[in-house]
Amino acid sequence: MPDLRLWSDGQLLQLREEMDKLFDGFCSDMGLPSVSCLQSDEMTICREDERIVISQPLPGYDAEDIEISLTEKVLGIEAQTKSEREYSHFSRTLELPCRVDPKTATATISSGVLTIRLNRTAAPKARRIPVIAK
C-alpha cells in the first residue's frame, strides 16, 4: 500500500488556484460566469486578473470604526462600535492565497459591505549568497 502524503495549506491553495484557472478558461469559452471566487462564511474573496478583491459584510460599522492591517500574506480586520447601550466588535485574520502589495491596497465601505482591493505581487526571487572562506 502506498504511503499517504500530507499536503500543506499552501499546496492545497495552489492546486485550487490552478483548478480555478482551468475552469475559468472553460467558463469564459462557454460564456459562463467565473468560478474564481472563494467564499468563507460571509467573506468573499475573488481573483480579478492581477488583483484580489475581498468583500466582508460589516453592517452597522462606519469607516472610522474599522481598522485594517496588512502584510504581504496576512490581512487583519478589526471593527468596533460603542454606543450608550451597545458594544459591537468584529475581528478576523486571514492568510491570503498569494502575496500582495500592501502599499497599493485600498478599502471602502458602502451599504454595510467592506471591500478591500489588493494588487498581487510575484513571489520574491531567491538570492544567491556567496560563501567566503576564512
From TrEMBL:
Residues 34-134 form the SHSP domain. It comes from Desulfobaculum bizertense DSM 18034. It holds the Pfam family HSP20. InterPro entries: A-crystallin/Hsp20_dom, HSP20-like_chaperone. It comes from the Bacteria. Gene3D superfamilies: 2.60.40.790. This is HSP20 family protein. Belongs to the small heat shock protein (HSP20) family.
